[in-house]
Amino acid sequence: MIELFLRRVAGLALVAIAALLTLVVAVRLGEWENTFATRRSVQPLSVADISEGAVAFWIITICGLAWHCRRMPMWRVWTRWAAFPGVYIALLQTFALVADHDQPIALLVVVGLLGACWTLGELVVLVTTRPVTSALTASGWEIPFPTRGLKIRLCVREDRLVLDSLVSRRKRSRDVVAVPWTAMRLIELVEVEQEMTCQVIINADGDIGRPRTFDVTPGPALHVVGTARELLIPVTPEVGTTALTMVQARSAGVEVVERPLWSYRPLRKHELRPANWEFRTDSRPYILLLVGAFLLMPLYMLTMITLSVVTGSAELQKDWATEGGLDQQYRVIVGGLGLVSVVFVYLAYRFCYKAFLDFMEGQGAIEAFPEAPPLPPKTGTVPGSGKKRKKR
Question: Under a CB-based contact definition with an 8 Å cutoff, are residues 203 and 227 in contact?
């Protein structure tokens, strides 16, 4: 537990360093540009000024880190989200320095800043997943492994083995092929004696699964057999041994299920999709989360009003018109906000967040089983009418 805690702390520290570094560089570039412009009455942006505009991005970053608390490879993405506000301001200042003041050296500064942010994102993954110890094996953290001679990445998650980057490195953790422990019949480290090709089906290009092939060169490889897939993954001996040990430890005692998720339970309403629906493993209905965030606005307003009164902050009280306390009319407004908040939080959970989680559960099943769920049976009724279609 101590090791995992220290790894998390180190990773979070690197995320904070990335965010702070970009802010400092952006401020320095702003001061430099202000000097050339000889503005005496205008002060360049400070770290505090940029931080106020970056709060929204940092809130998203914190939520993302909490959402992916065990998916450590995703932390590199959230590191770059945390750094984005500072990078954006630095780019604006760089364009001004180059275009208005003929200072091309600013380009070197911003290129170095981008390189530093990229490096910090990679370091976050390294400090949280390397070296692979017994504590990491016993945890539920996702551990990525490179494959031998391929761009494909092998990931061992809490409940499944995953191959991603089948289409592009930019689509990691999308276009996924998975073998969950409930579908894994066999995993072994074998020696491939001659070059061969492995073909898998992914559902990232439409409603019909598309075959993807990759070459398996002579050498060690992981042979994985599931109830719906068979994979041959070229790896180095060290990676193969470590990944095999981790999979065996995490899958121990899990009962193998012979049928996909939707064949042993009734189909849910959101799974009764039309014939032209695209069963894609890279589908993510993020619009549901945006709607859910909008429904949380009354709760946000209620929270800020409460904070302005409790903390006594003059700035907050000015922003939320609570100077001198709450009068009778304002108390009625606050009470109404409380009632609306309760209703909207329920709506956000019921129709947005829960629907999103249910959808992602179905996506996980599609990753593991290439076949799409069966279409709803034809009842002979006209959709929406409740009446039988007349026979001719």
Answer: no
Note the pLDDT tens digit of each residue in 97-106. 888 777 888 8
Q: One-letter amino acid identity for 389? A: R
Q: Which residue bears the tokens 């009354």?
A: 298
Q: Which two tokens stand for residue 293?
A: 């965030």
For residue 267, pLDDT beyond 60 = no
The CA-atom distances, in angstroms, between 244 and each of 129, 145, 293, 378 are 16, 11, 41, 46
- Tokens 């009470």 correspond to what residue? 335
Per-residue pLDDT of 83-141, as tens digits, reads 999 999 999 989 888 887 778 888 999 999 999 999 999 999 999 999 999 999 999 89
Residues contacting residue 310 through CB under 8 Å, at least 6 positions apart: none
Q: Which amino acid is at 64?
A: G
What is the distance between the alpha carbons of residues 165 and 202, in angstroms, rounded to a whole number?
A: 11
Q: What pLDDT is stored for residue 50 in this prediction?
A: 82
| Closest C-alpha to 21, from 101, 119, 99, 95 | 119
> With 50 as the cut, is the pLDDT of residue 385 above it?
no
Q: What is the pTM of this model?
A: 0.79
Q: Kindly report whether the peptide bond that precedes residue 234 is cis, defined as omega within 30 degrees of 0.
A: no
For 275, residues 6+ apart whose C-beta sits below 8 A from its C-beta are: 375
Burial class (CB in 10 A: 0-12, 13-18, 19+), 293: middle
> How far is it, in rounded angstroms, from Cα 231 to Cα 121?
30
Structure confidence at residue 362 (pLDDT): 78
Strand-pair category, 177-180 with 153-156: unpaired
For residues 121 and 76, the answer to whether their CB atoms sit within 8 Å is yes
The CA distance from 101 to 370, in Å, is 57
